[in-house]
Structure formats: C-alpha cells, structure tokens
Hints:
Largest sheet: 6 strands, antiparallel
Distance between the termini: 59 Å
Low-confidence stretches: 1-28
Mean pLDDT: 92
Helix content: under 10%
CATH class of the largest domain: Mainly Beta
CATH architecture of the largest domain: 5 Propeller
Number of helices: 3
Amino acid sequence: MNAVRLQSSAAVILLSVLFVASPTGTASEITLRQRSRVSVPEAHQAVAVDASSFYAISNRTIGRYEKETFRPLAKWTAPDDSPVIHLNSGIVVDGRLYCANSNWPKSPLKNSIEIFSAETLEPVERKEFDENEGAINWVERHRGSWWIAFAFYGEANVRRTHLVRYDDQWQKTGSWTFPESVIERFLPNSNSGGAFGPNGRLFVTGHDHAELYVLTLPETNGELNHIATVPAPIAGQGIAWDRSDIGTLFGIVRSSHEVVTMRLSHRDEYAALKQPVQWVRNENNPVLPPRKGEFDSSRVMNPWVVRADETYRVFYSGGINGKKQRIGFATAPINDLTQWDRVGPLFENGGKGSFDANWSVLPHVVQISDDRWHLYYTGNAGKGTGLSSFIGIGMATSSDGKTWSRTSDQPVLARSGEHGDPDAIGIAGGSVLQVRQKDGSTQWRFYYTGCPTTGKSHALHQQKTICLAVSDDAIHWEKRGAVLLRDPERDYEDIAVAGPVVHQEPDGTFRMWYSAIGSRWGFYSICYAESDDGMHWRRGTKSDDNLQLTPTGDGWEKQMVEYPTVIREGEHLRMFYCGNGYGNTGIGTAVSKPNTDTAR
Length: 600
C-alpha cells in the first residue's frame, strides 16, 4: 500500500480551455491547475475524498490515504465470493463511502451501491437496483438528492447513457440525457465519472480523454447543456470535488495508477495587475481605538466609510467586554482624522433565536435612493461552533443615513446548509454596489464571505471564500456561487479569503480589496484583485503582487490587518482597516502613494 511515486505540487500546469458564458453574458475561460500527483496501486477506476483523506478505488479494492502526507490509512479488498465486481466511483457522505458497483460486462447486468465505513473501509450496507441495461458508473449527492449515471457502451448504444436523480427513498425524480457534443467525446466507450462542482455545475468524464465536460441541468427532464470542455491532467475515469476545500478536484491517471489533485481557476487569474496600489499608513494610527465604559470598550472593528460633504462617517462594530457586538458610527472632518464624534449603538441585537442574537458585525451602508439607505450587517446567533455561528446577513434601513431601524429577526441572505457549497456552514458580509452592465441596465451585487466547513486544523476551521449574490431591488438576493477562492500557491492567502470590498471604475472594470489568511503569518493581511466583469479576478503574475498591507511593527497591527474599506479622495485612495484581535486595538487608516493609483 505504500505510495511509490510523488510529484511536488510546485510543478504547476496551466491548461487552455474552451469558453464558458458567465452570468454577465461575457466569455471567460475555466482552467484546472495541477497541484500534486501521487502513485498508489488502487488508482485504477476512481477517487473519492473527504476532509482528511482520499480514497483510491480499483475494481475490487479500495485504499484510504491521508491527504496531506499520502500516508496509507486503511485498505479493503473484496472476498472471492463478494458481489463487488466492478467499482466505478465513490463519494463520502456523513462518514460513509458510497461506491457505484456493477458486474459489467457480464450478463445479466447487476447494479448496486456499496456502502463502507469511510474510516475503516468495512462494508456496512448495499443498495441493489432493478436497472439491468445500463451499468452504474458513478454516484453523487447534491442538493438533497442522489444522482446516478447509467452508462451504455458502443456506437449503437452510447446515446442511451443517462443521469437519474433519486430522493432519499431511492424513488426517481428526474432523468437527463447527454448532448451529442459530449457523446462524441465519450466514444468509443461511455461516461465514466461525474461530480457537481462548487457552483452547481456538473463535471463529467469519459474513459480515455484528458478532459472534463462541464454541464448544466435544465429545470425539467431532458438533455443536459454542454457549456465547456476543459483539458485536465487526468485520463477520464471517476472524479471527486473536495467539499472541504472548495475548488479542489481529485482525479486519476489509470495507466500510471496516479491520484491527481487540481484547482479550479481561469485563464487570467495570474495575469498582470493594471492598477496595483501601494499604501502609506497614518502616523496617528489607530485613529479609532476602543473607549472605556462605552459600547465599543473592548473592540472597534469592521469599518465602512461613507462621505457626507466634507465629513467621513465610518460605520463599525463595537464590542463590550468581549461579548456583545453592536453597530455604531463615528464622524470626522476629512482633513482632520484625529477628531471623531461617535454615535451608537444604532440599534439593539435581536432576541433569543434571531440570527443576530449575540453579535452585529461587518456593517455595510449603501444609499438606495434620495430617502432610503440600507445597512447590511452580519449576525452571530450565539450558537454553533466558530464560523457556524454566523448564520445570516441582515438589514437595517434609514431615511437619512443616521437613524436606523433593524428590519427583521430573519436574514436577507442566509447560509445554505448544503455540504459542498461555499457558504455551507456560515456567511458574512462584504459589500453591495449597483453595477452598470454593458446593455445599459443596472444590477445590485452583493459580494460576501462564504464559510464552507469547520474542522480541527487551522486550514479547515478558517477556510473562507468570496461569493456573489445578485438582486433587482437590493432586498431579495439570488446566489451565484464563489467568485474568488483561497490560493494554495501563495502563502499569505492559502487558507482563506474574506470581507470583499468591490468598486466599479468609470470604464466598467472592477477592483477588489479583501482580507486573506495564510500560513505566512497565520492571521489576516489585506490583498487586492482586478476584474473585467466582476466575476473572474486577476491576482498578478507572481507571489506578493496583490499583497497590499501586512502585519507590521510591534504595536496595534503586529498580529494582523483586516477588513478594509476604501474610498476615493481626488487623485488617491483612502483605506480604513482594523488591527490586532479583529479590532481589539481599533481602526487605522492609510492613503495610496502618489502615482500608484490613478482615477479612471
């Protein structure tokens, strides 16, 4: 069971792709970047994965390996009299490994789902199917349903290959066929693997080609939509998205018995930045420290700045005694950031059972019309573990931007609760803006933080993604999934990305400042990205290109810098941000250096 060959993840392969239509109607390109390869004897049919392990699957043997070290952990081989003949895929759900099994190419055909303990690989259950024409090739769990592909082989029959959806009682609830453009790539064999990606797209493979076919499902039964063909450093067979590490895909190379890990990316992610910014910190930082005896006595965090004539109004979350967090604001003349008047709390948190019973943090304020303002904020419900306590984003309203009323005990945007989603276990704020679209219309966009998982390791416990939701009225939101993921190739953002602040420039392009957690410091720094469509973001050609502010000195920001807000001041930008302990030391400010940022 020993791993016999290892290739370093430092060898990164960037692969060209076909075009994919984004939700904005523009064209962009999906890529898969190879991260690692390891040879294990069981890598013959498929691979499955969970938070700690991957599972290499052959016809009648499964090997479990530690993800980080490739150390073998368990092995199971079917006894001679076992009905397990031809395992084809695997998925781990709630501590169980589900594998598709058939006796193909024997006749009569028999199909089953074989269920194992994910920890020990001991068989625990099996589900037999009446379907005896198509062979079960993969099984998947997605959106509260089971999905199974039945494969048919050969020129005359491959078009009968189809995908079936089942409920928890294994009753059929839908069926779809594959489009001709994909069938032609399956030949001379058939569909081999399939898995739903982080934004709900279905990725499938054939038996041979080094590529993935990206599909979407029509709302009703029918034919799947083929939106892209993506080259990949595998050779078909069973694949698995790592639902504990959003954007990471596992596959195999059958001929060399290799398990390959890949990372979802796009063509321009590492293109050069067009408007990089350098910053000069204010010598009086922190300009907004905590105050004794007030609602912000122990923490001043999450600034959001709005300009009113010649005054800055900085909204923030104030903490008292390390327990309750509530929203307030401070005002100061724009030419004197040493004189602040503070107001707050603006409203009280909700009662027991509400999404914001414990904390109100991450305020974001946007003017909707002349007499209507929205204040979006993140609630901590006071229950759950770590990031799972942040179950929703709520809203308060105002007619003047000063006096506010909380609208509901329920959030306007809630975590999904669906394992594998980028906001499965927690959700937190970012920024809302009204975007000018190419057809002349406008759209409200909410760039927010998604928390996909929890776990004992720092990387699992703190993993965060940047997500997008859209709206016509800035109240009712439709989620569009993750738009920026952690970058395992850069050690200052290889754990999490969060708290996005997005601006649209006069020429229609976008700029984002965000907080990142990486192994370099173990805490937050502030990073930067650019985009032509607000969906696909550039990080710069080499490491540190997009690193903006880092922990520094031996004082208020030596541990971390995080949660920026940015506003333009004529020919330069001003940033407010918080320091150690998520604002235990307060809020500071910085301005962009001359000639490092130009108004467009």
